[in-house]
Amino acid sequence: MIGSLSGTLVQKAPPALTVEVGGVGYELEAPMSTFYNLPAVGQPVRLLTHLVVREDAQLLYGFSSADERQLFRSLLRVSGVGPRIALAILSGSTAGAFAASVHAADVASLTRIPGVGRKIAERLIVEMRDRLSVIAADGHAASNPAPTGVAAEAHSALVALGYRPNEATRLLKNVGAGGSVEEIIRGALQSAARE
């Protein structure tokens, strides 16, 4: 598997680009969010990649951040969503806006993305809701930033106790970040008991 490429950007014509690494030119496709972060042609570039092997082709997709690649991989697991639609989603929406649309079950905003019809939008809402929460807990693409430090430890403990990552985040917001890990967990559990 090719996980990343570091080389010279020799061509960019959305959605395609070519990166030369050690005399070999790798053709990639990338979302517009990655194109906005690319340097000028002839400059060094480093991209994270995802390789799709099909019966008739091997396709390489490039991303400027781990968040983009993680969201792309999660989208590929949704029934009916292939690399083209996943790229369209990343190009037509930010990760945060996409997550907000999924959590709000906003079919209308998802169907505005090219290639996403009503059925796929409904499937995205059903299948991605929990995946986006898991991605958020891992500190990747999310509508809310993942907790850090003491809050991260408390968050992990609440998830280990059986709370969904988004529920754990909500409980931690109710408590605040002051105190030790044990005090924060105790406060979160008391908050959950009051609900």
Can you name the CATH architecture of the largest domain?
Orthogonal Bundle
Instruction: Give the strand order of the largest sheet, numbering strands 1, 2, ... along the chain.
Output: 3-2-1-4-5
Number of helices: 9
List how many beta strands DSSP finds: 5
The CATH homologous superfamily of the largest domain is named: 5' to 3' exonuclease, C-terminal subdomain
* Mean pLDDT over all positions: 81
Quaternary class: single chain
Q: Can you walk through the features of this model?
A:
With 195 residues, the chain is of the alpha+beta class. Strands 3-2-1-4-5 form a 5-stranded antiparallel sheet. It has 9 helices and 5 strands.
Structural features:
195 residues; alpha+beta; OB fold (Dihydrolipoamide Acetyltransferase, E2P); DNA polymerase, domain 1; Helicase, Ruva Protein, domain 3; 9 helices; 49% helix; 19% strand
Can you describe this structure in just a few lines?
With 195 residues, this protein is of the alpha+beta class. Helices cover 49% and strands 19% of the residues.
List the helices and strands and how they pair.
Blueprint: E1 4-13, E2 16-21, E3 24-29, H1 32-35, E4 44-53, E5 58-63, H2 66-76, H3 83-92, H4 95-103, H5 107-111, H6 118-137, H7 149-160, H8 165-175, H9 181-194
Antiparallel strand pairs: 1-2, 1-4, 2-3, 4-5
